[in-house]
Amino acid sequence: MSMTVETATLPTLLTALRLPTVARLWPEFCTRADKEGWPAERLLAALCELELSEREQRRIQRHLAAARLPQGKTLDAFDFLAVPTLSQARVRALVEGDSWLQAGHNLLAFGPPGSGKTHLAGAIGYELIQRGYRVLMARTSDLVQRLQVARQDLALTQEIAKLDKFDLLILDDLSYVRKDQAETSALFELISARYERRSIMITANQPFSGWDAIFPDRAMTIAAIDRLVHHATIFEMNVESYRRRAAYAAASSLSDIEDDRDKQQPEKETATAKDNSRPATLSSDIET
Questions:
Q1: Same domain membership, residue 59 and residue 101
Q2: 69 with 202: CB under 8 angstroms?
Q3: What span, in angstroms and rounded, lies between the C-alpha atoms of 75 and 83?
Q4: Domain of 225, in residue numbers
Q5: How far apart are CA 186 and CA 194, in angstroms?
Q6: Are residues 89 and 204 in the same domain?
Q7: Which of 13, 122, 132, 219 is surrounded by the most beta carbons within 10 Å?
Q8: Residue 109, domain member (yes or no)
Q9: Domain count, the chain
Q10: DSSP state of 64
């Protein structure tokens, strides 16, 4: 059976099939295939591989934009030597495996301000997106306010359900949530809704013993902690603030510069004194 193919309609067909990469590259690849004598299946496979590769890159960029991760915070940029309590091998094994995500297990990072908790959380989120997962990172106080607005609109359940599309929800700076009955109860409902279904990562300045300052009553505090730690990996990051370390380093560097300048100043003064004590120049002698 003969079949007439109108190649002029190919761009339209590829657009309708949502194959933008093939639509862009097929003329170049067809020309190359003709010159090099590729069989038809090789040409088709090459175009399909490129389409899938670029589609994956577009997906990653789209999900990175939606995740709201801090810029430049990757595991390669994280200074593990500055946080000796944190095992680099353990963290990398965590992001390379997915059993904990599939089971809805949690991650908790504790440490003082400036210890690298936000960097670590953002880096974990970045690595997971590269591996095909959905991640959302938000300041806990901002997300809690969003949930509270939804509660006032009688849409809290729906708002929490929208977050189900994210395999990992990163709640940064839990300690800054105000101890407000309405807001923290919304946070508790979020934690309960994701329990053993979807993973949460929390960063906090305060250990569990300080969480009574976040939740309005002891019973809610205990219940929230119980749900979070039941299946959790905990990172203890009790080190000096990297911002303070950077400030000390900058101050030390400035002090070294000033010391060098002070050392050079007497040398200049000595050199000037020597110049002033030299005999008159040759021209002065001639005039005399």
A1: no
A2: no
A3: 13
A4: 80-236
A5: 13
A6: yes
A7: 122
A8: yes
A9: 2
A10: H
Whole-number Cα distances in Å, 8 to 13, 21, 41, 45: 10, 17, 21, 22
- The rounded distance, in Å, linking the Cα atoms of 118 and 109 is 9
Strand partners, 235: 109
Question: pLDDT > 90: what percent of the chain?
Answer: 68
Task: Give the neighbor-by-neighbor strand order of the sheet with 199-204.
Answer: 135-139, 168-172, 199-204, 106-110, 232-236
Nearest to 188 by CA among 145, 221, 149: 221
The residue with greater pLDDT, 11 or 63, is 63
Residue at 60 is within a domain: yes
How far is residue 216's CA from residue 188's CA, in Å, rounded to a whole number? Answer: 11
| Neighbour-count burial for 28-64, b at 16+ CB within 10 Å, e otherwise | ebeeebeeeebeeeebeebbeeebeeeeeeeeeeebe
Residues 174 and 46 in one domain: no
Nearest to 127 by CA among 171, 104, 94: 94
Predicted confidence (pLDDT) per residue in 117-131, tens digit: 999 999 999 999 999
Which residue intervals of 109-155 are DSSP H helices? 117-130, 140-152
Please check whether residue 119 lies inside any domain of the structure.
yes
The model's pTM is: 0.78
In a domain, 257, yes or no: no
DSSP letter at 76 equals T
Q: What is the mean pLDDT of the chain?
A: 86
pLDDT-derived band at 86 (thresholds 50, 70, 90) equals: very high
User: Given pLDDT bands bounded at 50, 70 and 90, which one contains residue 267?
Assistant: low
- Residue at 228: amino acid letter: L
Q: What is the CATH number of the domain that holds 125?
A: 3.40.50.300
